[in-house]
Write a structure and sequence with these properties.
379 residues, alpha/beta, 10 helices, 17 strands, 33% helix, binds nicotinamide-adenine-dinucleotide, Gfo/Idh/MocA_oxidrdct_glycsds
Length: 379
Amino acid sequence: MTSLGIGLIGTGYMGKCHALAWNAVAAVFGDVARPRLAVLAEHSQELADRKAQELGFARATGDWRTLVADPAVDVVSITTPNAFHPEMAIAALEAGKHVWCEKPMATRLPDAERMLAAAHASGKVAALGYNYIQNPIIRLIQRLLDEGEIGDVNHVRLEMDEDFMADPEALFYWKSEATSGHGALDDFGVHALSLIRVLFGGVRRVCGHMAKPYADRPVQGGGRRAVETYDIATTLIELESGASGVIALNRSAWGRKGRIAVQLFGSKGTIVYDQERMNEVQLYTVGGPKETQGFRTILTGPQHPPYDKFIPAPGHGLGFNDLKIIECRELIRRIDGEAAHLITFEDGIRIERTVDAMARSAHEGRWVEVAAGHGTGAA
Ligand SMILES: NC(=O)c1ccc[n+]([C@@H]2O[C@H](COP(=O)([O-])OP(=O)(O)OC[C@H]3O[C@@H](n4cnc5c(N)ncnc54)[C@H](O)[C@@H]3O)[C@@H](O)[C@H]2O)c1
């Protein structure tokens, strides 16, 4: 067990989440060397210094390229806005570092393809931040599907909704800029596709629609600016398995806080899950007396690994940040050359190709085939 040196770029919402994971992974799992929190980068030295103090990093820099070149760094966590991912990930891989990059991989497919090429050339581990697949309940769903508990799945419906952009008077920020990607597709669609990827594999073709609920937003300091991204996206999908499906995304959905509603309909039953109630799953299976048929609720507990690493008692619940700690453990597993439940750049490119097809379909108003790829699926 060698201790990994960690570099963290960005300290916002996900930067803190990565920092918590690096701080906690050894304590939670007890079977990995405690990572060394080596260098933290922010856009200014002053902010980097303050955040390094708060998050426990030894050194700080206002220039991410200094972090990437630092010999004390083995793994680079990239938690900056989407537009920075390709440049930072490729530089880190070229410097011989492992990379843990937040989703989406990139905002344009050609950039994601360049990132994949850099990962191949480096021979280093390049993983993406798809924390929702790490929920023990999602692993249980995977098992239920593998064991045929609901028979052949013929229809999947995934909805992801939040309301952080629901207020028409919310300030224009990077998520409304075209440099951040298409909008809801890159922000939410990739998460829905990460779940489809681990539960079913690939998507064969898509027929999409995108919408802008608000044409412009106020700008800090005065005036308004035209919104360049689509906060709403709805896509019909056909899986490689032959199942049909719908992915509906809305980041302007008042009242929805962290909804990822998954409904999987099979020939012998139905599975229902919602990230807003992330510690439970609803299972309906046919059979038994009609009077007592219905969905039953299964709560997470130590019998759903790796819940047991966090809490010995069932029903007490994991949280969002815990999923990142699990993902961190899987990343270390992969760096150690073991099989891991992780979406690497190889698998992530399939998600990016699907998003690209969804956006093209929406613009062209027709079904679009998803480009074939070489991804291997999360192992
Ligand atoms: N996996 C998930 O569940 C999840 C959730 C939210 C966000 N994300 C992803 O995480 C990424 C960051 O999103 P966020 O919500 O944390 O954004 P954020 O705005 O909260 O944080 C971004 C951070 O990057 C820093 N930064 C910007 N430019 C920089 C530079 N040149 N050098 C160093 N630091 C710089 C900012 O100062 C800020 O601290 C996005 O790609 C987003 O899609 C993933």
